[in-house]
Inverse folding.
């Protein structure tokens, strides 16, 4: 179903497949990324990194490096310590080293930085720095981390063990009782491995401190420039950096996916270097540094249980999870949610009782716990529940579609209050699954599967009927560093009827320049091509919390609509003045106010814009502009049903995805083409960890997948063909009825793929396979289970 | 990361001669490509260095070698070496267990089992390359040891191990496996 279209193509409001305004510069290779920026007198930074996962630094000898032509400075933790800048806070209230003074905590950790006149000299100087280490026993396995004799990693915090926090939600006793009374209980260990967003552009910045003005400008790969500015002012206020003197500019970003939310040590070192040297300092990570040191995602060791009646009605869910956070909790969650929104794990199902607990531990691995294209641990939650529903179906001998229909929250139950405390805004889960089943020909596929099984062939069908929770978030619960998670739009209409709109979010490829323009076109009738959208410069854009967790449309998109409506209200007053009628006598249609009953008496938005500057009503302020800070009343709950069909080669263990149908529902659609593009990309980023991606460490803490030689990503060759469709269930509380969509597919796809593979192997007693499902893993199972 | 290699080879020399060489670190170590003994601390403890260059990563490990087992009855020797890279690029440890066995009066079979554990930059190359490179190193060691026993001067003993050729061979044999060729069959 296409979205309802209310504007002509000349205006191009909501529902139009408008081509992306930003694509011209990307397709011409004219995008402007941080590394494209060159400032006069700019110096270059490169970083010495630890070869050990855990070691004491005995000495750092930079003599040879400093003697090299072109080397300007070498910065160590001891240097930063003089300014009390060697540690910094994380978003989760933990502490993280900028540069170490005595101990390194993971392989590839920053140890020292070289500043040189040339990128290559900096790299050579890194090689010339001699660091003497005393290796210490590393803690790599998170279960080992909790053993009483495991080395304690964060003695600096006065810790006596490696446990970071315990978090729980739900009714433990009621859930316990439901499990005792259940006809059927299933239990499954599920590991969701550590993965990395691996965006095309790595992280980097140019820190440009002007010693005369005392002003710091930072060009930076960040998804949240305003938060960075405030955080810098908080962390470095004592050395004279004051928020009005800090400008953060996030230019074009080559993919973020959550990986560009944290403030990495490299940024801070570059800023310190620029302040110390009074010159611009550029730091750009190479690929391996990005993969080895920047925030990971996932790494949840989940034990999940479902209780059900013998007819297949799920009565309770219980989950216990161990979260490996690396050496510091540097997750990028809202402050009050240490495990993010993991408690969405009751999913699309009406489950009366649920209890979830998560324990986080320190290990000698890089810090993180960022999202990888999902709203704060929602993928972990969806993967757990969607896998468990299939485990239960298998145990009951019931079709997994039938079991889902039996347990779905029904359309008339919305707004639905979940057992873990969320109020789902809207949904129609049976419709989405039915549509996906019809598109793929589910019943026919099951018949085919029975025939193939009789011939000994391996074919599987997997379903994932996920529910997301996106658009953080309402100010009563959601903040980062205490700053409420609203977002903003500042809209100005020029005298000629064109507009500029600035936002607190920051596109990294999502198409904001087009989508936001279409929202304003929808609300004001100004052609979308004449709405200029700007983001990412903290000196010009209104304050906002940035783009991640599919929050831009739910928050800033809503702010755009609300700001436009404020402008329209003023426009109505001006129109009444120009037409010499009262405001109540006016009717609005996109771009025009008409007098009721005399439709040829009208003024266009362009006439009104000109009048706002040339002939505004007496007693009214001139100009036509508005600002709106949108505090969402609730989150939005996009959903969908995916069905995947796989064939498995018995000889090689290779899983081939024959078909993949994705039915998504993100409420009202602003630009269907962009939504489809987001889903295609999201499906590929769901396919990737399902089949290929994993950050693997050995027992010494060496990363064994530290380059793209070993960390596999799908290319166009491996990626299946995606079939997409949609249902439309508007959000009742969003001004446009829209939800978020950037991450739905990443969240929903892996479970559909795993469910299909397990379904293919279920006749041989396979109930679960951890991702990534590599050919070798399948091949081993085929041999262990005696399939071949 | 750990790699274990086990190889068996025979030499046309009597057991006692082979054992006298195999049980003497001063003779064994120079045959390890890139390795040098720098000091004998006591009968069972030595100090030495190993220089290695794999692709862009060069490492120079400085450390200790200990004879953990020296059994003249079973002709078994166990050497344990541990070293840190002089410039902080990582660490390596190696355990070598060698055994000599007479097949006949003039033929001796040597079984060598080497466990190598590497931390840091070298480890990041991943198991595929490290295994192949180690295997090549081992072959060089064997060749050197055989020529040493037969009285020929080992050509490259003690020299720093050269880079490009090894990694190229490593890649070649990985590629060979990938395309289904038998190793060494290019």
């Amino acid at each position: 179903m296409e979205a309802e279209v209310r504007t002509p193509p000349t205006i191009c409001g909501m529902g139009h497949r408008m081509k992306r305004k930003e694509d011209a510069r990307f397709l011409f290779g004219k995008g402007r990324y941080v590394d494209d920026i060159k400032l006069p007198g700019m110096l270059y930074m490169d970083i010495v990194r630890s070869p050990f996962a855990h070691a004491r630094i005995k000495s750092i000898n930079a003599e040879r490096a400093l003697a090299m032509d072109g080397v300007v400075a070498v910065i160590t933790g001891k240097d930063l310590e003089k300014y009390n800048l060697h540690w910094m806070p994380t978003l989760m209230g933990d502490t993280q080293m900028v540069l170490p003074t005595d101990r390194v905590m993971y392989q590839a950790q920053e140890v020292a930085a070289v500043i040189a006149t040339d990128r290559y000299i900096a790299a050579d100087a890194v090689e010339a720095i001699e660091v003497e280490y005393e290796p210490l026993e590393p803690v790599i396995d998170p279960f080992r981390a909790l053993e009483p004799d495991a080395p304690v990693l964060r003695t600096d915090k006065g810790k006596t063990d490696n446990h970071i926090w315990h978090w729980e939600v739900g009714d433990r006793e009621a859930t316990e009782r439901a499990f005792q009374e259940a006809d059927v209980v299933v239990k499954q260990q599920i590991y969701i491995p550590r993965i990395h967003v691996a965006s095309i552009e790595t992280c980097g910045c140019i820190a440009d401190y002007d010693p005369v003005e005392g002003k710091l400008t930072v060009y930076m790969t960040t998804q949240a420039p305003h938060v960075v500015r405030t955080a810098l002012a908080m962390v470095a206020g004592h050395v004279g950096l004051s928020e009005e003197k800090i400008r953060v500019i996030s230019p074009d970003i080559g993919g973020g996916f959550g990986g560009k939310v944290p403030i990495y040590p490299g940024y801070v070192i570059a800023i310190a270097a620029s302040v110390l040297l009074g010159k611009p300092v550029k730091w750009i990570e190479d690929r391996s540094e990005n993969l080895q040191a920047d925030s990971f995602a996932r790494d949840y060791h989940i034990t999940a249980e479902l209780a059900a009646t013998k007819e297949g009605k799920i009565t309770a869910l219980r989950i216990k999870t161990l979260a490996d956070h690396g050496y510091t909790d540097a997750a990028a969650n809202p402050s009050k949610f240490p495990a993010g929104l993991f408690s969405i794990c009751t999913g699309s199902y009406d489950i009366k009782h649920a209890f979830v607990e998560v324990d986080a531990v320190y290990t000698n691995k890089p810090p993180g716990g960022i999202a990888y294209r999902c709203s704060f641990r929602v993928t972990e939650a969806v993967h757990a529940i969607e896998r468990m529903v299939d485990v239960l179906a298998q145990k009951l001998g019931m079709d997994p579609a039938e079991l889902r229909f039996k347990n779905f929250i029904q359309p008339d139950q919305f707004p639905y209050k979940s057992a873990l405390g969320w109020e789902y805004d809207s949904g129609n889960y049976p419709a989405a699954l039915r549509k996906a089943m019809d598109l793929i020909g589910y019943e026919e596929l099951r018949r085919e599967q029975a025939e193939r099984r009789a011939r000994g062939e391996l074919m599987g069908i997997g379903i994932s009927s996920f529910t997301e929770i996106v658009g953080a978030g309402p100010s009563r619960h959601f903040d980062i560093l205490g700053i409420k998670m609203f977002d903003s739009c500042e809209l100005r209409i020029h005298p000629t009827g064109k507009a500029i709109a600035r936002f607190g979010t920051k596109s990294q490829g999502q198409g904001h320049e087009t989508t936001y323009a279409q929202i304003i076109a929808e609300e004001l009738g100004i052609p979308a091509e004449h709405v200029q959208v700007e983001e990412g410069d903290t000196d010009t854009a209104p304050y906002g919390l940035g783009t991640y967790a599919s929050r831009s449309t739910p928050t800033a998109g809503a702010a755009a609509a609300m700001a436009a409506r404020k402008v329209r209200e003023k426009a109505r007053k001006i129109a009444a003045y120009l037409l010499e009628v009262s405001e109540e006598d006016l009717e609005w249609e996109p771009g025009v106010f008409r007098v009721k009953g005399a439709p040829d008496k009208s003024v266009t938005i362009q006439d009104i814009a000109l009048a706002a500057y040339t002939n505004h009503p007496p007693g009214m302020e001139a100009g036509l502009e508005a600002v709106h800070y949108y505090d969402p009343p609730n989150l939005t709950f996009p959903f969908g049903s995916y069905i995947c069909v796989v064939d498995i080669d018995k000889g090689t263990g290779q899983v081939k995805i024959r078909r993949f149908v994705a039915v998504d529902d993100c409420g009202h659609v602003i630009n269907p083409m962009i939504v489809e593009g987001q889903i295609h990309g999201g499906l590929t980023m769901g396919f990737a960890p399902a089949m290929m991606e994993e950050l693997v460490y050995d027992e010494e803490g060496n990363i064994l997948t530290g380059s793209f030689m070993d960390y596999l990503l799908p290319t166009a060759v491996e990626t299946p063909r995606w079939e997409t469709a949609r249902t439309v269930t508007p959000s009742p509380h969003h001004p446009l009825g829209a939800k978020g969509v950037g991450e739905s597919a990443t969240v929903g796809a892996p479970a559909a793929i795993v469910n299909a593979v397990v379904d293919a192997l279920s006749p041989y007693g396979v109930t679960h396979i951890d991702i990534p499902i590599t050919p070798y893993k399948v091949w081993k199972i085929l041999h262990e289970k005696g399939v071949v | 990361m750990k790699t274990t290699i086990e190889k068996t080879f025979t030499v046309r020399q009597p057991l006692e001669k082979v054992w006298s060489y195999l049980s003497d670190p001063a003779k064994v170590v120079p045959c390890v490509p890139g390795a040098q003994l720098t000091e004998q601390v006591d009968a069972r403890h030595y100090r030495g260095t190993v220089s290695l260059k794999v692709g862009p990563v060069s490492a120079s490990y400085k450390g200790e070698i200990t004879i953990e087992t020296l059994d003249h009855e079973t002709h078994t020797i166990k050497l344990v070496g541990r070293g840190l890279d002089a410039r902080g690029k990582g660490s390596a440890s190696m355990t070598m267990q060698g055994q000599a066995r007479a097949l006949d009066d003039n033929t001796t079979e040597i079984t060598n089992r080497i466990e190598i554990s590497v931390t840091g930059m070298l480890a990041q190359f991943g198991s595929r390359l490290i295994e192949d490179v180690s295997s090549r190193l081992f072959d060089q060691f064997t060749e050197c040891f055989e020529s040493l026993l037969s009285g020929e001067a080992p050509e490259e003993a003690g020299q720093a191990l050269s880079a490009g050729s090894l990694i190229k061979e490593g890649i070649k044999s990985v590629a060979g496996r990938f395309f289904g060729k038998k190793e060494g069959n290019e």
